[in-house]
Amino acid sequence: MKDASTAADLLCADWRSAVFVGRIATVAGPSPILIRDGEVYDVATAAPTVSALLAMPDPAAATGDHLGALDDLLPALKILSPVDLQCVKAAGVTFAVSAVERVIEERARGDADAAAAVRAKLEDRIGGSIRSVVPGSAEAAALKTALADEGLWSQYLEVAIGPDAEIFTKAPVLSTVGWGDDIGVRSDSSWNNPEPEIVLIVDPRGRIMGATLGNDVNLRDFEGRSALLLGKAKDNNASCSLGPFIRLFDQGFTMDDVRDAVVELTITGSDGYHLAGVSSMREISRDPEELVRQALSEHQYPDGFALMLGTLFAPTQDRDVPGRGFTHRTGDVVRISSERLGTLVNRVTTSKSAPPWTTGIARLMANLAGRGLLQPPVMQDHV
């Protein structure tokens, strides 16, 4: 699907002064690109993967083949997910509203019909408390004790206000989809929603290099039945989209811009349904750098990683039956946008109907080797 005719449709207002990293499909195979001053450069000869590019001391200075102006190239450009060898991680239950919704899923046992009554009870008891408490604080511990005494404690509240964040692996390496691709929801799920998020990109040394947008598709019925179904709820074919590009941090775009970001979501159904929502990163319960620190505390990522920061957005607007809330239908178009990062667009299908994931690490390495891009000096310098 094509949803952007100009770079201004795809990216942010200041895109000509920003530096972006991405991936595109070429006749020879996937190539990392740099976008500087509105011009596109194929940098595969300098760094054969985005992972290798971001491991450079100064990725924005990489050289490559000039392909032309982004505006001119865009109509024919096949944009891929902007990460390749990076592990794709996600932080869950990082906003108070989403924490309450996860507890609702758990208490309703994945039954959308029971959600409304549970939501009313929980909002009345913990809505204000959970929004004001600092995770891991003495006040959070006291709230935990009070809720446990009332029989309202939940494993989701543990990661929402306890000392340890929920950090999990969202998708296998190379399995994410990009801007314009179909995004997959399990065919046997009847209660699900998009999760629009800011995604931090971290290099092998733990440097936070920049950010992009993501959709961490959520199956509320599966995870609501049991938290042990998280893997089945989160990791399915085409169930994670990233893009359109990674915006690198520089003097004009910093971590503070991530902290101040507003993420907008619209869902347009082929049935005429329309839903809109807004998330403010100022409402996140843990600072983004703290989430990165926890992801790195006992683990290494030699190819870097992407970290989805969680979402405030938990759609409760009824789509069909009153009280059942929202769930996707095939053909929904999901648009996730943020002023400094651009717009990520995907159309919903089932994971069974989405194009199968066929390019794994072995196939990518074979392609890069066949193109002469895996010469020892390149790999020693950048990987």
TrEMBL record:
SUPFAM superfamilies in alphabetical order: FAH
Pfam families noted in UniProt: FAA_hydrolase
GO biological process terms, semicolon-separated: small molecule metabolic process
GO molecular function, one term: metal ion binding
Gene3D superfamilies reported in the protein's UniProt record: Fumarylacetoacetase-like, C-terminal domain
InterPro entries documented for this protein: FAH, Fumarylacetoacetase-like_C, Fumarylacetoacetase_C_sf
Record keywords, A-Z: Metal-binding
The Fumarylacetoacetase-like C-terminal domain, residue ranges: 208-348
Highest rank taxon of the organism: Bacteria
Family in the record: Belongs to the FAH family.
PANTHER family with a match to the protein in the record: 2-DEHYDRO-3-DEOXY-D-ARABINONATE DEHYDRATASE, FUMARYLACETOACETATE HYDROLASE DOMAIN-CONTAINING PROTEIN 2A-RELATED
Name used for this protein in its record: Fumarylacetoacetase-like C-terminal domain-containing protein
Lineage: Bacteria, Pseudomonadati, Pseudomonadota, Alphaproteobacteria, Sphingomonadales
